# Entry
Amino acid sequence: MNKTIGLFAHVDAGKTTFAESVLYVTKTLKKRGRVDHQDTLLDYHDIERARGITIFSDIAKFQYEDSTYYLVDTPGHVDFSYEMEKAISIMDAAIVIVSAVDGVQAHTKTVWRLLREANIPTVIFINKMDREGVEIEAVIKELTSALSPNCYMMDFENEAWIEQLAELDETLMETYFETGYEEALWNQVGRDLFLNGKAFPTFKG
# Structure
């Protein structure tokens, strides 16, 4: 199975660094590159390395289990929105990177609107959680107000997501009150809601 996943963000949210981590964890890279070291796999054009931002939509391939994924790193700067918009048409799914420090920014909202218009299944990743002063609850509140109330935090160390997902589906809510959490059902309904653009699982790191 081949899937194309787009990375979208406001400039400097850490999108290219996130891509490097994905490629490293999936053993595509032996070493993570860094934007400030000008040695990332995706931002390889001289002008991108000189400016420290993504200007062109570049693609990296990685394997996970039995599937092949094409990871597309799109520009986050508004001046290069045309490149980003062209890339949306080839996406099977999207990951929107949001900085925990800066929250939802202007280009984040633009990206979100375009992804919703194209009905692209979307995951949110809250980046830069290691920065001082970050308040995750404030970031999540902003996501649900600025992007969608159907963003829910996937934190497997905290079972709050089980109830949050149930609130988005009548069948899950009835099951939750009658018999409690059923893993297989939650996984199936959660997948369907995600693929139909009705739920947006949110992760942090």
